Amino acid sequence: MPRLLEKKIQSLRKLKKLIPYFKARRQKVVFTNGCFDLLHYGHVKYLQDAKKKGDVLVVGINSDSSAKRIKGKKRPVVNEKDRLRLVAALESVDYVVLFKEDTPLKIIKFIKPDVLVKGADWNKNNIIGKDFMLSYGGRVSTIKFVKGYSTSNLIKKIAKRF
Hints:
Blueprint (H helix, E strand, L loop, with lengths): L4 H4 L3 H13 L4 E6 L6 H11 L4 E7 L1 H8 L8 H9 L6 E5 L5 H7 L3 E5 L10 H6 L3 E5 L7 H11 L1
Parallel strand pairs: 1-2, 1-4, 2-3, 4-5
């Protein structure tokens, strides 16, 4: 039975209490992050592929203020509360956690995932948290994006049509 949406949205403190439960059962914890503004098929496929890297998928979601600093003053289009709910509603996602910093390093250090996943547009050497992951035997992995899918392209398409 799918987990209730509310149980998938966790604070960092509560999440840290859950992680040892999974590790004690030898379940691999996978972590990825992003803004996930205007959820589209590319996001869904990326998260499905991330889930395949382990047993429990935790997704860090940039807060509105963090997304604005990273993506520009007109973003995000969808507020953080709704982005948390939308990503949590996906079957492949086990937990979501909001973060206000520009990078997810604090979360990575806090939960010590077994696998850190980023999009293949990132050079593996530049992935935030890579050195920390490798320091305790964690793995860093990249996933190819689905060609033609991006939030920026979706925004341009909508603006052009309307």
